[in-house]
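Inverse folding, one chain.
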C-alpha cells in the first residue's frame, strides 16, 4: 500500500503549485480574515481551504465553514474567512498558522508547514476522520474563481470534502455550520423558515393588535447592491405584518456593490445612500452591508438635504436591551432581587467605537457593560460569558446570544407556565424571549434577522422611529485614517482605549483630550486596512474635528509618513 504521507505531500504540492504566491505578496489574517484585491486572492484562498480542512480534522470531522467575501469593501476586493464548528469565527489560536501558511514562499515550504503543524496539533493526515468544509460566497465577480481555489485547497487534504452551499449572506453560512454541528436542520430553506416563523411568532405576541399605523409597517431596505438585498427579495412576501421595499437590491443593473450605498457608507458618511430621495422622507429605512452582517437604520428628514438621522449599532443594541429587560422584569418581577423565577446574567459588550452617550445610557439602566477590542471575534467571545449576552459594534454588527443552559431553563419555565398560567404576562414574556432566541442569529451578527427583531420590537413597543432616536442623543464623533510607515508599531491596551507604544503618544492624546468638554479620543492600527484609525468624540462637531485632526498629526509625526 502507498505511504499516506507520500500521497498527502503530493496533493499539497500540487494544489500549492496551481496558485503560487506572487513576489512581494503578504497576507495577514486580520480583524475578519484575509482581504485584498480580488484577482490577487487565489493563493490565500487556496491556503485558507487547507487550513479549514485541517481545522475540521482537528475537531474530529465536525463541519467548518469558509466564506468568500470582502463585506463592505469595494466590489473589486475580495476576502476569505473561516467559520469554526460552533458557527463563530475561527479560533484565534489558529491565526498565526493561517498567516504562516498564506505567506509560505514556495509549495515545498507550505508542505513542511502543514506537516509540522499537523504533528504539533496531533492531527492525523491521510487517515483519521474525514473533514467537511461548507463553502459560500457573496456576489462579487471574483467569487466563483476564488471558490475554485478554496475547493482545490480543501481537496489537497486527503479525506476532506468541500460542500458548496452557493451564494449566501455571511451570517447564513455561519448559521448553517452551527446548525449542522448541532444536528439541527441546516439548509437555506430551514434558515428562512426559522427566521420567518419566529418573526411571525413575535408579532403574534405583540400585546394587543391595534398597531394599525400603516407608515409604521412600511420599511425601505438598502441592500448595498449585494446578497442581502437578493435574499430579502426572496423572503419578503413571507413576512406578514411588514411591507418591505428593497432598493439597491443586488438585481442586475441596479448598481454597484457597496458603491455609495450600504451600511458602512451610511454609518460613516451619515448621508443617504444612492437610490434614495425625497420620496422616502420620514419612512423608516434600514441598510445592510455587502455580505449582510451589518445593519443600521436611518431616516431622511428633508427634501433638499442629503443628511440623515442615523440609528447605528449602539442604538439597535439599546433597543434590544430595553426589550429583553422588559421581558425579564415581567418574568421575575421588577423589584424582586431575590428568589427570581429566572435568574439571568445579562451582559452588554461594546468596543471603544461605541458612542459615549450609548454607554452612559446602558450604565444608567444598571447594566454591566464590558469592553473588548474591535472585531466580532472579541465581542462574541465575551458575550458568550453571559446567560444573555448582547453585543454590537457601532457600525451595526452584533447579535444577542442565549446560552444553552439558559435556554433549557427558559424552556422548562415556559412549559410550566403554559400549564399553570397560560396567557399570563409572565408566560407571554417567556415565549417572547424564546422566539427572540430563535429569530436572532446565534452564530454571528446578521442584518436580516437583526432587522426583523428590530421591527418586532418597534411593533411591540408601538414606537415610531422618532421614539427610538430619542432614547439618547449621540455625542458628535469623528473618524480619521492616517497612513504611516508601520501601523503595527502602535500597541494598545485597555480594550484599545489607550496606547502603550510608542511611548509618549498616549500622553499627547491625553493633553489634547483635556481641552474638550466630553472629550474622548483613541488611536489603533486597523486590522483590515493599512492605516491607523483615529476616533474622537466631544460635545460639538467642530471640537471633534479639531481633536481628531490634532491627534492624527501627532500620530503622523511620531510614526512617520509611509
Ligand atoms: C472602526 C471600524 O468600523 N472597524 C471595523 C473594521 O475593522 P478595523 O480593524 O478597524 O479595520 O472592519 C471589521 C471587519 O468588518 C469590523 O469588525 C470593525 O468594526
Ligand atoms: Mg460585512
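Residues assigned per position:
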Amino acid at each position: 500500500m502507498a505511504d499516506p504521507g507520500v500521497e498527502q505531500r503530493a496533493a499539497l504540492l500540487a494544489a500549492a503549485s496551481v496558485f503560487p504566491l506572487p513576489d512581494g505578496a503578504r497576507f495577514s489574517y486580520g480583524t475578519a480574515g484575509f482581504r485584498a484585491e480580488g484577482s490577487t486572492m487565489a493563493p490565500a484562498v487556496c491556503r485558507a481551504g487547507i487550513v479549514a480542512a485541517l481545522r475540521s480534522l482537528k475537531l474530529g470531522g465536525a463541519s467548518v465553514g469558509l466564506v468568500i467575501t470582502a463585506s463592505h469593501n469595494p466590489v473589486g476586493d475580495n476576502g476569505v474567512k473561516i467559520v469554526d464548528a460552533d458557527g463563530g469565527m475561527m479560533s484565534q489560536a489558529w491565526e498565526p498558522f493561517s498567516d504562516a501558511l498564506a505567506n509560505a514562499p514556495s509549495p515545498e515550504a507550505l508542505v513542511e508547514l502543514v506537516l509540522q503543524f499537523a504533528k504539533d496539533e496531533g492531527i492525523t493526515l491521510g487517515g483519521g476522520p474525514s473533514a467537511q468544509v461548507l463553502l459560500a460566497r457573496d456576489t462579487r465577480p471574483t467569487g466563483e474563481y476564488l471558490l475554485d481555489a478554496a475547493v482545490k485547497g480543501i481537496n489537497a487534504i486527503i479525506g476532506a470534502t468541500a460542500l458548496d452551499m452557493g451564494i449566501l449572506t455571511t451570517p447564513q453560512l455561519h448559521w448553517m455550520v452551527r446548525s449542522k454541528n448541532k444536528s439541527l436542520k441546516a439548509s437555506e430553506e430551514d434558515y428562512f423558515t426559522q427566521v420567518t416563523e419566529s418573526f411571525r411568532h413575535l408579532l403574534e405576541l405583540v400585546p394587543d393588535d391595534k398597531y394599525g399605523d400603516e407608515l409604521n409597517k412600511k420599511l425601505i431596505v438598502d441592500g448595498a447592491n449585494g446578497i442581502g438585498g437578493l435574499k430579502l427579495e426572496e423572503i419578503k412576501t413571507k413576512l406578514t405584518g411588514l411591507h418591505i421595499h428593497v432598493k439597491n437590491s443586488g438585481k442586475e443593473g441596479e448598481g454597484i456593490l457597496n458603491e455609495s450605498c450600504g451600511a458602512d457608507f451610511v454609518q460613516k458618511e451619515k448621508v443617504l445612500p444612492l437610490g434614495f430621495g425625497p420620496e422616502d422622507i420620514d419612512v423608516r429605512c434600514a441598510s445592510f452591508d455587502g455580505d449582510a452582517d451589518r445593519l443600521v437604520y436611518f431616516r431622511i428628514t428633508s427634501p433638499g438635504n442629503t443628511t440623515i438621522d442615523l440609528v447605528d449599532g449602539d442604538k439597535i443594541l439599546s433597543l434590544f436591551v430595553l426589550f429583553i429587560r422588559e421581558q425579564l422584569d415581567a418574568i421575575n418581577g421588577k423589584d424582586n432581587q431575590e428568589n427570581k423565577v429566572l435568574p439571568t446574567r445579562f451582559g452588554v459588550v461594546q468596543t471603544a467605537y461605541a458612542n459615549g452617550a450609548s454607554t452612559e445610557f446602558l450604565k444608567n439602566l444598571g447594566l454591566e457593560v464590558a469592553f473588548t477590542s474591535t472585531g466580532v471575534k472579541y465581542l462574541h467571545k465575551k458575550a458568550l460569558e453571559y446567560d444573555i449576552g448582547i453585543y454590537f459594534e457601532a457600525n451595526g454588527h452584533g447579535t444577542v446570544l442565549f446560552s444553552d443552559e439558559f435556554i433549557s431553563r427558559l424552556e422548562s419555565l415556559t412549559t410550566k407556565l403554559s400549564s399553570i398560567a397560560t396567557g399570563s404576562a409572565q408566560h407571554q414574556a417567556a415565549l417572547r424571549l424564546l422566539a427572540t432566541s430563535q429569530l436572532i442569529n446565534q452564530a454571528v451578527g446578521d442584518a436580516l434577522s437583526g432587522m426583523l427583531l428590530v421591527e418586532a420590537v418597534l411593533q411591540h413597543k408601538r414606537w415610531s422611529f422618532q421614539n427610538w432616536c430619542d432614547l439618547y442623543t449621540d455625542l458628535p464623533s469623528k473618524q480619521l485614517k492616517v497612513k504611516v510607515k508601520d501601523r503595527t508599531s502602535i500597541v494598545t491596551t485597555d480594550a484599545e482605549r489607550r496606547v502603550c507604544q510608542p511611548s509618549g503618544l498616549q500622553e499627547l492624546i491625553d493633553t489634547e483630550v483635556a481641552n474638550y468638554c466630553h472629550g474622548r479620543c483613541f488611536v489603533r492600527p486597523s486590522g483590515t486596512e493599512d492605516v491607523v484609525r483615529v476616533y474622537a468624540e466631544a460635545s460639538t462637531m467642530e471640537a471633534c474635528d479639531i481633536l481628531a485632526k490634532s491627534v492624527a498629526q501627532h500620530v503622523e509625526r511620531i510614526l512617520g509618513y509611509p
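The first helix runs from residue 4 to 18. The pocket of magnesium ion (ligand 2) is lined by residues 71-72, 289, 291, 293-294 (CB under 6 Å).
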